[in-house]
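Form 7-S
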Amino acid sequence: MILESIIIVIYSTALILIFMYALAQLNLLLNYLKADKITIESPKFDFTNQAEIPQVTIQLPVYNELYVMERLLDNIVKLDYPNRKLEIQVLDDSTDESLESTAKQIKSLQNKGFDIQHICRTDREGFKAGALKEGLKIAKGEFIAIFDADFLPKPDWLKRTIPFFKDAEIGVVQTRWGHINRDYSVLTKVQAFALDAHFTLEQVGRSSKGHFINFNGTAGVWRKECILDAGNWEGDTLTEDLDLSYRAQLRDWKFKYLEDVETPAELPVVISAARSQQFRWNKGGAENFRKMISRVFANKTLPFKTKIHGMLHLLNSTMFLNVLIVGILSIPMLYIKNEYAHLKAYFYVMSFFVISTLIFFICYWYMYKKTHGSTFKDFVQYVVMFFTFFSIAMGFSLHNSIAVIEGHIGKRSEFIRTPKFNMNSLTDSWRNNKYLRKKPSLNVVLEGLLMLYFGFGMYSAFVVGDQGGDFGLFPFHLMLFLGFGFVFFNSLKPRV
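Output:
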């Protein structure tokens, strides 16, 4: 009975933590709906007055981006901004042939009159954070716009973001990500679905109430003074953007989030690329929890509610670990429930997962219908998309949990870039991309075993107890089976 008690306690704790996170998401939804009804007039620079147009530096941190560099530079020079007030820094840590082709394209752009520099380091110390810090030393701009290699800002992007810095307290302006290849595959649709929720529900829900939000690493602008005041870029976590965001907001800088300014970008189209991106984001989140949580709670000026939202924000990635725990222990719990009738009251805690799922379902529906519509057909498509997303997210839970655990225990690892593919249409191919990982990791074997394990969980529903089975957890085990199956098979043969 000791083992059974331990399982019940761990399982219940993980379920309650997921439920708390769901309640926080519900609070963000309420914040979002309230914010949607409020129009705030912000002071802005008057760009009809040349004296008010500030100097801007665009930083493009790149590393071995052979397939997208030409597209990136061609797009950046189309930004509508006075040439004499605009500087472009290509922060190039590349070690392959892209270094030479990029140098040639930059030389051509220089000959056309663009103020563009090719800044190359001899080593990758600090990775992306180190490159940004190096470029900042010589940046001419009062404001620093940052774009990753796969982002394609529209020509009016600077004119829609820079004016908000008229407010001297604003340190960052962040825009919403768009997705140029959203409909390429099931994998890209699921990623777009998750990111859309972050860039609507979470960013607006937090910023509207003055809670911590984060610069998303790209498609945003920093006030140079803000970067320096917050301690500059640091490379001791894998998410340097989240790190600097918290340090800046703890120094009382305001962040402005622009939901209506979309910056298109490319989503990873193969599962190995998505895995590397997910690993970096989730491990970096856990690393920042270790680094920042004591500073957040030690701050005497922050409201308690903001501290709680900050804690849950920094623990976002840790939810994958709770989901994995709940999933693995749900099968033993199924047998315990049907073996010990006197413990039946304790199993009401299982309803927390159903309630949490319902909360997520409602929150994501509000986000989905804003961009896709709210007809009955849209709702049916949403239901399919939600459960597809939920299943695949659970399928990533082992991979992401390993990242989270490494982050929490302080295990260091290199910054692994996400391969870019230059995917502009549904017919474009990724198969010859030289940056793709050739062999799946050993974790894939465990994901295959978990797929079989949850298959056993579905079988168990028919045989437990003496009342003809127990099917309460069957839908949950089905989603886990499908999610781990999707991740397993596509990791063996990365075609999605």
